[in-house]
Amino acid sequence: MTSELPTSFTIHKNWEFKSVEDTDWKSASVPGNIFTDLLDHKLIPDPFIETNEEKVQWVAQKNWEYKTAFTVNEETLQKENINISFEGLDTYAKVYLNNQLITTTSNAFRTYTIDVKKHLKSNNILRIVFTNTAAIETVKEKNNPYQLPEGKRIYTRKAQFQYGWDWGPKMNTSGIWKNVSIKAWNDIKFDDIFIKQKSITANNARLEIEVTIDSDEDKNIMVVTTADKQIYSNHLKIAKGKHTYSVPFDIKNPKLWWTHNLGKPHLYQFDFKLIENNTIKDEKSIKKGIRTIKLITEKDSIGESFYFELNGKPVYMKGANYIPQNSFKNKVTDKKYDKLLSDVVASNMNMLRVWGGGIYENDVFYDLCDEKGILIWQDFMFACAMYPGDKEFLSNVKQEAEDQVKRLRNHASIALWAGNNENAEGWNRWGWQDGRTEKEKKEIWSDYLAVFDSILPKTVAKFSETNYWESSPKFGRGNTKYEFEGDVHDWWVWHDARPFEHFQKQIPRFMSEFGFQSFPSYEAINYINQKEEVDLKTDGIKSHQKHSRGFQLIDEYMLRDYNIPTSDEDYVYISQLLQAKGIVMGIEAHRRAKPYNMGTLFWQLNDCWPAISWSSIDYFGNWKALQYKAKKSFENVLISYEENKQNILTYVINDTFEELNGELKMKMIDFKGNEIWSNSEDISVKENVSQKVATVPNGGIDRKNQVLISEFNGKKSLYFFSKPKELNLPKGEIQKEITKTKTGFSIIIKSAVLQKEVFLFTKNKGHFSDNFFDVLPNEAITIEFATEAASLDDLQIKSLNSIY
User: Does residue 323 contact residue 358 with C-beta atoms inside 8 Å?
Assistant: First the structure.
């Protein structure tokens, strides 16, 4: 059999850039953006340090131009069809090939593909001129009949967070942020392939593969599909043009795709060949997990359920909200994607929500989620605003949605498409309707419905098998239905300064956002300040806190539960404990309420620059206290406590699909290790439940000097009866023993007295297997520190005991 495959290559070399009004061209990186190109030439200061963000705002106000020269060999030029594709141009651009205008662009999230057969030569000049967004937004805003909330960003289809957010800088990029490529073929090629699931049983997965073929004429061809050592050949009579054909395929005894915490995320590789007259014309490979995922929203006696059913089983969702990993997307390497998503798995998270003010992530992100067994709640890229409804905007959105849904629909990790982040809540609860006429309100809401109740759900239904959810959250806080149906963003804590205990009292059906700020690692703080010692009183630190009341709220909450330390270094440490205390209190309350509540996703997993923010992992990849403690609170089997006026109730939450049997051991000790009370009994915990397993009277307890310890099924959990600042933590030395290992160092920690919130830190780059943990009296704990460092001479240890 002969082969006549399409030819394709990227155009990523020899790019240059300049300001439109300048004549001096400088080398550029593609994929990339104007900020990183200027940085590479030291034409702007690093906007992530000190107060440099304000010094680079001029960049977004200019128009920029990129060009490159590239050659095309004669064999490619002789092909009957030649296209050029731009997977991401940011945003308003005119594209010229050999001085011919071949397209204009207006959406950073769309792929633009142009037939360039008649324009292409052996030697070519490709030039792209970017107009700054403000110039076009000003005109669009003027032409819109109403002043819409949230400024001019709403008129431009690009990453909304680049206009500034309460955790990120204002870095409005422009440039070529994704691949530019040429594809040439003769008469026929695959355009797209969608692997649909018709039915799945233990014995058979019946698939229907929709193959879209682009052909220059009517033909008789054969599509050969291979997967799991099975080969299906289908003869098709195809018509001229671009058409979709159905090809059946069965997988016997299918291995299902599961989240990593419940099974193996098995992926099948499907290989496709397009054959005509014994010649392979095109081929394509797709990795696909066989699974069913459904969002179940059914009326019940309380309101309406909200949970995900994976392969027919209700699965409790544990995770966080994900934002872009860098303000400059080209800086996020495949290695960084792998590191962060490996951290997600290591932290027992099974779902991430890709937030609607960022980007539809790069392919590698979804590939890794497929491989690692992480489900994705995928927002469309609309956030905290009302958007226009003119024909041009709606047409642009429709094509964007089709591009992205088609791109991502074969990924097993995609669990849900959601229309937007907080747009409906903003309209109904944030005062956006104030002062508007009834006609104006009706038309603005009609424009909202055109996108989120029509274009997006229809696109998802037409091009995928995934459920759609109009707006996250369904109801804003303050709505009477808030606790009883839909998903919830609970910002009573933080924005409204309610105590952390609020999380234990108002529990929704699914918590899709809740959070609390903390300071990042010492490394991030010192990077911001360009100093060797921790200093929180600099202008740089102030400029990296984007919430107007951020410092005030951290202080206010810290006063409630902790003694405020005098040193900046200790303040950073306590701020992380504070964040972890509040969010873990919420996580465990949500999990105890299972199956009433079936998911908890905190805000936010990561940062796009070094900042004081709600993240649990900072910009440099360092785990804050929250990430360490969430890892334990997200384990499949969790021991958790709830206290009322008379008793302490002990729960075992079992997220597995197996009944658990074993001995529940409980004891009360003082902080020097003296046992006050103990009990043990054999218990059985049903599969996939939260179950109360013990009740301990809380009378007569020395609340400032004692701790309750429970052990079951290899898990241990501690319960303290007072706020950290009220505990009588004893003085005592923390002993450490350090041993070099192949992957770093092993550290044994021990103390004669209870040590609360032990924190290990070093200037060496690496990762501690655990941190911010409690050490029981005379109990040795071994911590592994993974690092490339040759020594660990500077290891330091803090605990609440040592600073109180």
Answer: yes
User: Which residue bears the tokens 């994900």?
Assistant: 322
pLDDT at residue 419 greater than cutoff 90: yes
pTM above 0.85, yes or no: yes
Cis peptide before 595 (omega within 30 of 0): yes
Four-residue CA torsion sign, 433, 435, 438, 443: negative
- CB of 180 closer than 8 Å to CB of 12: yes
Fill in the DSSP letter of residue 57.
G
Residue 522 and residue 497 in contact, taking contact as beta carbons nearer than 8 Å: no
The contacts of residue 801 (CB under 8 Å, 6+ apart) are 729, 730, 731, 732, 753, 754, 755, 756
Q: Quick check: 68 and 214 in contact, CB under 8 A?
A: no
Position 74, amino acid: E
Least confident of 470-484, 567-581, 749-763: 470-484
Token pair in block for residue 274: 């397009």
DSSP code, position 255: P
Alpha-carbon span 684 to 613, nearest angstrom:
41
Q: Count CB neighbours of 666 within 10 A.
A: 22
Three-state DSSP class for residue 511: strand
Q: CB of 803 within 8 A of CB of 565?
A: yes
Taking residue 144's Cβ as centre, other Cβ atoms within 10 Å add up to 16
Q: What are φ and ψ of residue 340, in 5° steps?
A: -65, -45
Residue 478 clears pLDDT 90, i.e. is over it: no
* Average pLDDT value for the chain: 97
Burial label for 537, CB within 10 Å (0-12, 13-18, 19+), is exposed
| CA dist., res. 782 & res. 770, Å (int) | 9
Closest CA to 286 of 409, 375, 200, 110: 409
- Burial of residue 232 (CB within 10 Å: 0-12, 13-18, 19+) is middle
Give the pLDDT band of residue 476 (cuts 50, 70, 90): confident
Q: Is residue 489 a contact partner of residue 377, using CB atoms and an 8 Å limit?
A: no
pLDDT at position 804 is 86
pLDDT > 90 in the chain, percent = 99
Q: Residue 675 contacts by C-beta under 8 Å, 6 or more apart in sequence?
A: 667, 668, 669
pLDDT in tens, 24-70: 999 999 999 999 999 999 999 999 999 999 999 999 999 999 999 99
* Cα 492 from Cα 220, distance rounded (Å): 63
Report the side by side order of strands in the sheet with 293-296: 293-296, 307-310, 313-315
Instruction: Measure the CA–CA gap between 25 and 363, rounded to whole angstroms.
Output: 32
Vertex 380 angle, CA 484 and 265, to 5°: 80
The confidence score (pLDDT) of residue 553 equals 98
Place of tokens 């680049």: 162
223 Cβ contact partners less than 8 Å away, ≥ 6 residues apart: 211, 233, 234, 236, 245, 247, 272, 273, 274, 275
Buried b (16+ CB within 10 A) or exposed e, 768-780: bebbbbbbbbeee
Checking DSSP bridges between strand 510-513 and strand 487-489, what pairing results, if any?
parallel
DSSP characters over 355-388: -TTS-PPPHHHHHHHHHHT-EEEEE-S-BSS---
| The pair of three-digit structure tokens given for residue 73, joined into one six-digit string | 């060999």
pLDDT given for residue 1 in this prediction: 86
Signed CA dihedral, 695, 699, 704, 706: sign only: negative
Q: Are strands 766-768 and 781-787 parallel, antiparallel or unpaired?
A: antiparallel
| CB-neighbour burial class of residue 520 (10 A; exposed 0-12, middle 13-18, buried 19+) | buried
Cα angle 462-467-469, degrees, rounded to a multiple of 5: 110
623 DSSP assignment: B
Cα(first)–Cα(last) distance of the chain, in Å? 78
List Cα–Cα distances, 575 to 9, 570, 581, in angstroms: 50, 9, 10
